[in-house]
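Morning. Coffee machine broken again, so started the prediction first thing and wrote up yesterday's gels while waiting. Chain of 240 residues, entered below exactly as on the submission form.
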Amino acid sequence: MAAVHAQPISQVDFWLLLTNLGRGWPAFAILAALDLGSGKRSALFFRCFLLSALLLPLMKKFFSVARPVSVMGPDALHLMGVPVTGMSSMPSGHALTAGAVLGILWLTSTHPYSKHRFDFISLAGLLIALLVAFSRIVIGAHWPADVVIGFGIGLLMACAAGWHEQRKPWARSLSKGYWVWAILVLQFVCPGIMFWSAAENPLEVMPNLLLGIGAALLAIISLRRHYLNTVLLKQVGDSH
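Came back before lunch.
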């Protein structure tokens, strides 16, 4: 931790953009847009979300590790955004989300027995997930151990979600009927949350605005894809 913060660190908005990608809403916006109507990635995301909502607060309370700024002091760290204090450092929730998203992309990118498991999306996801996790150290919010353990727990949660999805699938239900529209509505809620965060947090305005714009574009793409699929299915039905 001391070695990282002994180096000159610039590009504050870049690191804050990365660290905010580790929040649940941007993660959902990305996975839902990459779902391509199958419901698989959305199903795994919701399973991981429920697991983390149950386990993460318990783990933070059990370990009760002080945040870096509470131990090293603000002068020893390059603090970015809103400084985080208290006894909730272990594990990192943002790194957990990054690990879970990477695991979901890895599980859904190709066939389990394919030799080419890591396609472009998986490799890009790996790079971005590692940067998101590392950003928690750079901005002074977490110790390296918090990030490593959080990232590992996220991967394990994705594996557990994939295991349970094979036995009790949700993807089929999420890919049709009212569930499709519910997911689309949530996708359009995502940019609203990010724009609200930008308005409420003067220290992270630009990163949240960029994430909000990105989430809005992804939601529009998903809506257009759903519309085109609906038109195509109707044409196929009329032809028969």
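The two ends are 65 Å apart (CA to CA). Going to sketch it on the whiteboard this afternoon.
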